[in-house]
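To make this tangible, this section ends with a sequence with its structure tokens:
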Amino acid sequence: MAREVPTPRFIDVARPRPQPVAAPVDLAWQRVEEFLRSRELSDNTCKAYERQLQQFYAWTQRKPWRELTHRDIDRYKQHLKQLPSRRGGQISPATVNQALATLKSFFKWLTVKDYIPRNPTLTVELLKEPAPLPRDLAEDQVNQLFDAVAFRGASEVRDRAILHVLSHGLRAHEVCSLNISDYDGRRLTVREAKWGSDGPVPLKPESIAVLDSYLGWLISNGFATVADAPLFVSLSNNSRGQRLGYSGVYELVKDLAAASGLEDMHPHRMRHTFATALVAAGMNPLLAKRAVRIRSDKVFARYSDRALDLKMEEAFEDLYGAPEAP
């Protein structure tokens, strides 16, 4: 009898599932991340450095750092000079110099860490910038802004306190970042400020009285006054009680300026006014520089020179008389 041919049997063998292939590690960008971690930078400065280095890295088409030469840096400088600005025309020399300064700092760090053999940014020169003049306000203009606060309605108490704080030279974003604990009844303490300009800000007696009144207003209106609560809160229906943002401070100053008939007004002009007034009043420039929390002698010289011009004109008018109004 013929034997049956067995039916073939197929044994399923478990096959390992294919594992996802990990994306290749970008060692060049890891150097940027390490550089940013190693620096004691404020959040805003760190973001600016990262953005500028991203733009440069994309422009190089992800070329390894050690392969870049001074010619690449020079070409990138020319590229920056041709970029359009948001307001039309080309970007300012100050913007170009900020990008170049970031590259200088980064490549110096790469060289010190022995990640590259030589620094390609050593020969690059920054653009010459015209020194911007301080845009301080006259005393009567400042008084007009304070007079306009009286017409702010339900937000008058808060807005008056904000204007007093701005009049002590704080930047708008520093005002927004203040917490209740940053006011001790005599001074404000600015933290995580631009360019590391943290520090105490002593307050005038009238400003202390205004801030004390505002804190009482916060309590009577049911707002939080714990240490980590924002000092200045929004009064808008959709964000009531939350931290007041930069746009809130900016719009407040613009509204006060419009009510006072002042043009081209923005919060930073209060900082210019404070710095110039301190030197013009006779404060030691070294102490005035510290009060405004400006680290650069070159930047502060603009305010001290402006103050000297004002004192010179006052002395001239005392000697020869003030000119008649046109």
